[in-house]
User: What shape does this take?
Amino acid sequence: MIRAASLGLAAWALASASVAQTPGFSYPDVTPGRAFSFPADHGAHPDFRTEWWYVTGTVKTAKGEDLGFQITFFRTRPRVDPRNRSKFAARQVLFAHAAVSDPAIGKLLHDQRAARSGFGIAEARIGDADVRIKDWRLVRLADGRFSARIVARGFALKLIFTPTQRPLLQGAGGYSRKGAEPRSASYYYSLPQMATTGTLTRGTSTQTVTGRSWLDREWSSRLLGGAAVGWDWTGLNFDDGAALMAFRVRGKDGRSLWAGGTFRRANGTIVTLKPSDITFTPTRNWRSKRTGATYPVAQVLTIRLPEGRKRLMLTPMFADQELDARSSGLPVYWEGLVRTEGGQGYLELTGYAAPLAM
Amino acid sequence: MASSPARALAWLIAGEARQHPGRIAIAVLAIAIGVALGFAVHLINGSALAAFGQAVNTVNGAADLKIEAASRLGVDEALYAKVLSVEGVADASPVVVLKAVTARGQSFTLLGLDIIRAAEVTPSLIAAPARGPGGNGDDVFASDALFLSRAALIAGELRIGDRVTINANGQARSMTVRGILPGIAEGRRVGMIDIAAAQWLFGRLGKIDRIDIKLQPDAQAGDVRTRLKPLIPADAIVSDANDDAQQSDGLSRAYRVNLTMLALVALFTGTFLVYSTQSLSVTRRLQSFALLRTLGMRGGGIVALVTIEGALAGLIGATLGLLLGFGLAVGALNILGGDLGSGIFDGAPPALIFAPLAAAGFFALGVAAAVGGSLIPALQGARAAPAIALKNAGDSIDPRDRLTGRLPLTLLLAGVGAALLPAVGRLPLFGYLSVALLLAAGITAMPWLARSLLSPLARAWHRNVPMDLAIQHLHGAPGAAATALCGIVASTALMIAMAVMVTSFRGAVDQWLGEILSGDLYVRSEPGWGGFDQGSQARMAAIPGVASMVFSRQVPIVLDPGEPPMSLIARPVGTGDATLELLGEETMPPPGTVAVWLSEPAARILAAEPGDTIRLPIGQNARFAVAGVWRDYSRQQGAMVIDAKEYDRLTGDTTRDDAMVLLEPGADMAAVRRAIRAAAPPALKSRLTMAEPASLRTLALSIFDRSFAITYVLEVIAIIVGLAGVATTASAQASARTREFGMLRHIGVGRSQIVAMLGVEGALLGAVGGLVGVTLGVAISQVLIHVINPQSFNWTMTTQLPVTLMLSVIAALVVASAITAMLAGRRAVSIDAVRAVRADW
Assistant: This one.
């Protein structure tokens, strides 16, 4: 999976081709055949350029309202001179995003945090999941559950995620290719079907919620080839316990340059999807008045399984789930709660407001 | 017939103006000059302050609250994390502030920022966040990425992508211009780099200079300040935008108020000129007024007539003055800069900001001055009994009356009393009141003074008809003499007062320079290029021919956020140090305290005396005791000296900016200069200023003269206005006395004798006016020197009299008034004697 905000991060923080080589500085490559070990891989991999802890979920309030949320922590490693002895040296920079999808409000509530590491203000722990920026935190507790605490402008999320399944290694044993070049790849695993409990606050009203969440963990040093303008991604939790992740990388003409995905059945067997196994077909477009961008907010996802094609209709809970965080330097994208037959999850649409040349 | 008195008034005013356009013009001009000067000073300073305030805001980025290091040594960076966790603080942005210079010598403020924090707190200080990859490809965290404001880009003739060498804090670093800072106000030269790069590349590891704070929307600034207080170390200060404004206002307030007061003095002189013009005009028209009175006009009509005349002159003068003042301000801003050459504000000439309220104020003052000057003559004219006035146009004071000095004495005592009162809000308002009262005392004493001064002459018999006539005339009619003199006395007195003050000040500065410049050579590193590190200090001191070298460090420190920073000077302090001219006694500091010697302004501002303990924002928990007070004319905001060893111990900063060199006898100055340059740190080699005491002294005095250039201009104007007043009053008096001249002709006095008599009268008037003016001026100068200067500039001096100038002023007045009186007299006596006498029924 490739996440939208990583584009913004690249702009914010990452060295581009025009920056002179920094002596004594390099990023490790992502290569196939890496052995994953937990809980160490829940923690940070600070040598890599980009990494994220990305939770999306669907919850129900006691009153029966269906809501969605996303909590994302990004870690990046800017190209800074390793000789710089300043405590402010931006060896690691952390960003976080949080949003609530509430059909009754009709648009996203969202907020963000960002800070360079150091001074105890922002840290991503090595060895186990514990990422923190100022007052926001996502941490794996001693009992294996994850806890997120987000107090934001206009809303708050205090949630506990309990893994119910083993980590799902994406691509070839956790090596997830993003394009024709083998170097364009990431290490990628997910924790789908996490039982979720906690409280959700909107304005001054706090409610107890329960639901299901999906944690995506991905780290990489080089994500994309040059021709991509954006991507569509989805992660779906099915009611029977199955889970599906699928993405496609789009070129200028809107066609897929690359695609990938993984389907884990309820019984635990895994089907790895090749680029030719995945088709996204838009069925409904929505135009944002804020940005002028037009998003294919409803799509038909077709995947080829050994037993035959499976068509999944992805229907958004509501159309306006656009996230405009340009003021903090991030791109505009659409990150929305969707329903499908026998399940629900998130759909992410990037590169529609403006082509994202990388 | 209701309109007939009004019509008669209009007719009288128009007639008077037609008949004596020159006199009216001088009065109008005097008012115009006063208004113009006052308005111009106000406009210039208002514009300069606005520009300065904008500069401060530009660099500060308009945070809700900020914590600033009290000196450029900075504060420990750990404070940042503590501040960020304070309740009510939404975000905090750490800042490193550097004075930077490009290789070509353009200076700018270089800010080291955490772009992420600054985006929340002071977004105007950072480049627009990039929107996507592949755009401008900037990497804001790269240690060589430099962002510049447009003005900095233009000043350095740079373009985005250029490599440029930046010097700051003694380090030269190569950077790449990566983008523009669009939020920086026009004309402001500001650069931005990453805070880590700023610390690492420019020798500021572990230190920050400022923390900008954004408050939670519902937080009260006062509450947050209270919560911050226990966290703030001694070397930091919490402030907000209000404090900045106060500080920039405080910078120039004394200077501005003094200039404005000088302008008001010009206006005051204008009032006296209007008074003398109108008095003469009233005296001359007493018969016309008497006739009008017998025809039924009331006394009030006469008052109205004369007052309206004055008001008209005031209206025209004030209007002219506003136009002239605006022009002056535009010119002065472009030529002298916003500080009128005083060096208070740096930078490009600010844009002129028109001030409608001030314009209205100065206009009203101008009109009021003219009306005020006319009121007394108007009342006199109205009071005169019509029957006597119809027959007589002489002096209202009877020559046999004894003149009393009760009013002048009261004014004098009030003036002395006002001089003893303290400053109001750090401004010497009572001092100025004292000047005004002394001036009024001098002028009201004029009839008495004129008669007293002339009495010895009047008792003597000179066997010289013109001289005796002149003396007796002046002795017998001192009121007329006083009227003629009040303008010149006022302007001479003020001019001499200013001259004495400036001469004393210049003399004091000159003497002080001689005492402090006891070295053979002075070496200074240009600001922004760092200073001499310990290695180069040792190398320099070891240069053959150098007997000793005294290094010093000057650091601006903020003791109060609303006050301009003082200078902390670290240098070796020995006993009997000649370069520290101590005022009063020196006290040994109590054990456990660090001795600090305050400059005179610093001692006044801090209200501290030798023996007092004070708090300074350097060193943790160090206590300081005032050991002595020294004379200093160069730093109006205050300065203090501590011993170099104590400074090193307290701050760990061993860099020095300045050095005083003492040479061995016979040492080769040129060779020493070369060796010093060779021993300097590499970045500084071409950025050293070396000067010998003589040239430093010349430079200091030329700066002094430049700052007082505006006062010289005002003095010249005052004298010109005064002389113009003498000329107009002389001609007015001559034409009013045509009948007297006719009578004299009839009893056998020749025309040339009358002219000679007028010449003597003029010369005597000039002498009396000059003498009184100069004496009054010296008295007023004492108020300026001992009251106004210490109260507004915080320094004292001893009086030095510009004797040559004083004598030449008197001589010039004698000559000028004799000549003008004779010129006026020639016209008056050319009238046929018979016709002149027939006018006297």
